[in-house]
Amino acid sequence: MKYNPNFDVDSVLDLLRTVNEKYPEGSPEDEALRIAAVALFYVREKQRLEDYREFFRSFYTPAIDYIVVAQTFATREEADGWLASGKAQEGERVRIAGEGFRVIPERKGPGLRFLRSPLPEELMKKYPPESE
Question: Which of 40, 61, 110, 115 has a CA positioned 20 to 30 A from the CA of residue 24?
Fold first, then answer.
C-alpha cells in the first residue's frame, strides 16, 4: 500500500460517513466505522495527528524501505574511527563491510558501540520469501 503522508482527515471522515450510511444503525459495520471516525477525531482533538501520520507510515512501509542506513563503511576500522569521533548517535543504523549494525550505548560507562543488527536486504537473502 502506498502511503499518502498528507492525507486529509476531513476527507477521510466524510468517506467514513458515506460508507457508514450503507449500514443499518447498530450493525457491526456501523460500530466499526464509528469507532474509526471517533479515533480520528480524538487524534486531531489531542493534537497528535503528526504522531499518528508517522505511526501510519511506519505501519504500512516495508522494513526494507523504512530502515535508513546513516553511514556505510568499507572496514570495521573505518567505522570504529567514526564512532570514536563523536559523530554517531544512538539508534543509528550503519553498514560495515556489507553487514548491518545499530549504534547503542556501551554496557558500562559512557560512549557508544556497535550491535550486529542485520539489515532487511541481508535477511531477504538469508530467508527469501516463499513463492506462491
Answer: 40
Strand partners, 96: 73, 99
The verdict on pTM exceeding 0.70 is no
**Residue the block writes with cell 553487514:** 99
**73/65 Cα distance (integer angstroms):** 20
- Nearest 5°: CA angle at 55, between 10 and 21? 35
d(CA 74, CA 79): 8
| 3-state SS record for 55-121 | HHHHHHCCHHHHCCEEEEECCHHHHHHHHHCCCCCCCCEEEECCEEEEEEECCCCCCEEEEECCCHH
What confidence score (pLDDT) does residue 21 get? 95
Grid coordinates representing 128? 527469501
